[in-house]
Design brief:
The mean pLDDT is about 95. The strands form four sheets. A six-stranded parallel β-sheet has the order 5-6-4-1-7-8, with helices on both faces. Helix 6 links the parallel strand 7 and strand 8. Helix 12 crosses helix 13. It is of the alpha/beta class.
Length: about 400
C-alpha cells in the first residue's frame, strides 16, 4: 500500500510538524558531516515554498546524563540549517513548555523553528525515558503543536518513539494528516523495490564484523538474490564452516552451525572470498600478506584479497540491482581498505544498474571515493535499512497513513 506523502497535501497556511533526522556528528559545537541536514531540505523547502511553516523535531546522540546535553544540543544544527536554507531559523532550547508554545504560536508561513533534542526528554523529567519509551502524553503534546505531521526520519524508522509513532498516533486520533516526507518516500521506493521487486540479476553484498548482524538479511534475500557476496569479518565464520583454517581471524563459534545451514540453503548463490589480506596483528603497521582461503595460525584476515576482488567484480559486472551493506575489510586502516574501495569503484561503473548503499562504512567509502553522485541511492538509516532488507515492518513507516 502506497503511503501518503507531503506532496499529496495542501500545506498553505498550515503549521507542519516534521520529524527529521538531524543526528549528525558534532564535536565542540562543530558539525562534522551535514549530509542528514541536506537530505531533509527537499521536504522543508516544499513546505515553505507552498505557504506552510515548519516545526522541526529531531534527536541527537544518546543522552545518559545532564553532562551529555552540553555536547548534544541542536543549536549548531539549527544554525547550519539556516545557512543551507538561506533564511533565519529560530531555535528553541526546549521541546516542551511555554517557550515552545509561544514560538509555534508566532510562526508565520515560510518560517522554520527547530526545537531542542527530543532525547532531552529521556532525562529531564520524573517519568523515565519519555521519548525512547514512546510516552503517549508526550506524543499528544507534540502533536498538538501542528496541523499536519510529516515523518521524514528514516534513520529512526525502526524505533517506536514519541517523536514518530507517538505523534502519528495522536495526530490520527485528532483527525489530522500523517504523511511521509520526500526522504522516507525515496527510502521506501529504493529499498522496497530491492526487497520485493528487484530487476535481475540481483546481487547483495554484505560485509561487516558479525554474521549475527546480518542473519535476517541473508535469510530474507537468499530466495530473491542471484548472488550474495560475503566479505568483512563475517566471512571467516563462513570459511570456517566450510572447513578452512582461519588463523586468528574474527570468528563467531556459536554461529558455526548456522553458517553451515545458510551455506547449504544458499548453495552457489553465497560467494565467499577466495583470498585475504592477512596480518599478524590488528594494526595498520603490522606485517601483512595476501594468503589463500586458508590463513596461517599466527595471522588474521583483515580484508578480501585481489583474487576475491576480481571474483566479486566479475559477478557485479552484469548486475541490474545491487544492495551493498558493510565493508569488505577493516576499512578504517589504509592497508586493509582496498577491498571496500574496489567494490565502491565497481558500483560506480555500473551505469545500467540500480545501486543502493546502506551502512556507515559503505557510505564512508562512497564519500571517500567521490562516487556518491553515481550511486542510485545511499540510505540515511543504518539499522533501519538493515531491518527493511530483513523484510521487517518499520514502526516509523507503518504509522504513516496509507493513500
Amino acid at each position: 500500500m502506497a503511503k501518503l506523502n507531503i506532496s499529496d497535501l495542501d500545506v498553505k497556511g498550515k503549521k507542519v510538524l516534521v520529524r527529521v533526522d538531524f543526528n549528525v556528528p558534532i564535536k565542540n559545537g562543530v558539525i562534522g558531516d551535514d549530509n542528514r541536514i541536506v537530505a531533509a531540505l527537499p521536504t522543508i523547502n516544499y513546505i515553505l515554498d507552498n505557504g506552510g511553516s515548519a516545526i522541526l523535531l529531531s534527536h541527537l546522540g544518546r543522552i545518559k546524563s545532564d553532562e551529555d546535553k552540553k555536547e548534544l544540543s541542536l543549536k549548531p544544527v539549527a544554525a547550519r540549517l539556516g545557512e543551507l536554507l538561506k533564511k533565519d531559523v529560530e531555535f528553541v532550547p526546549e521541546n516542551e513548555g511555554s517557550a515552545v508554545e509561544t514560538a509555534v504560536k508566532n510562526l508565520k508561513p515560510g518560517e522554520v523553528v527547530v526545537l531542542e533534542n527530543t532525547r532531552f526528554q529521556d532525562i529531564d523529567n520524573d517519568f523515565g525515558k519519555r521519548e525512547s519509551k514512546n510516552d503517549p502524553k508526550l506524543g499528544e503534546y507534540w502533536a498538538g503543536l501542528g496541523d499536519i505531521f510529516v515523518n521524514d526520519a528514516f534513520g529512526t524508522a525502526h524505533r517506536s518513539h514519541a517523536s514518530n509513532v507517538g505523534i502519528a498516533t495522536a495526530m490520527k486520533a485528532a483527525g489530522k494528516p500523517v504523511a511521509s516526507g520526500f526522504l522516507i518516500e525515496k527510502e521506501i521506493k529504493f529499498l522496497g523495490d530491492a526487497v520485493s521487486n528487484p530487476v535481475h540479476p540481483f546481487v547483495t553484498i554484505l560485509g561487516g564484523a558479525k554474521v549475527s548482524d546480518k542473519i535476517g538479511v541473508i535469510n530474507n534475500l537468499i530466495p530473491k538474490s542471484d548472488h550474495i557476496l560475503i566479505g568483512g569479518g563475517m566471512a571467516y565464520t563462513f570459511l570456517a564452516a566450510k572447513g578452512h583454517k582461519i588463523g586468528k581471524s574474527l570468528f563467531e563459534e556459536d554461529k558455526l552451525e548456522l553458517a553451515k545451514q545458510l551455506l547449504a540453503e544458499a548453495g552457489d548463490k553465497l560467494v565467499l572470498p577466495v583470498d585475504s589480506v592477512a596480518a599478524t596483528e590488528f594494526s595498520n603497521d603490522a606485517s601483512h600478506e595476501v594468503v589463500g582461503e586458508d590463513i596461517p595460525d599466527n595471522e588474521m584476515g583483515l580484508d578480501i584479497g585481489p583474487k576475491s576482488v576480481e571474483l566479486f567484480k566479475s559477478i557485479l559486472k552484469d548486475a541490474k540491482t545491487v544492495v551493498w551493506n558493510g565493508p569488505m575489510g577493516c576499512f578504517e586502516m589504509p592497508n586493509y581498505a582496498e577491498g571496500t574501495l574496489e567494490v565502491g569503484r565497481t558500483l560506480a561503473d555500473l551505469t545500467d544498474a540500480t545501486t543502493i548503499i546502506g551502512g556507515g562504512d559503505s557510505t564512508a567509502a562512497a564519500k571517500q571515493l567521490g562516487i556518491a553522485p553515481k550511486i542510485s541511492h545511499i540510505s540515511t538509516g543504518g539499522g533501519a535499512s538493515l531491518e527493511y532488507l530483513e523484510g521487517k515492518e518499520l514502526p516509523g513507516v507503518a504509522c504513516i497513513s496509507d493513500k
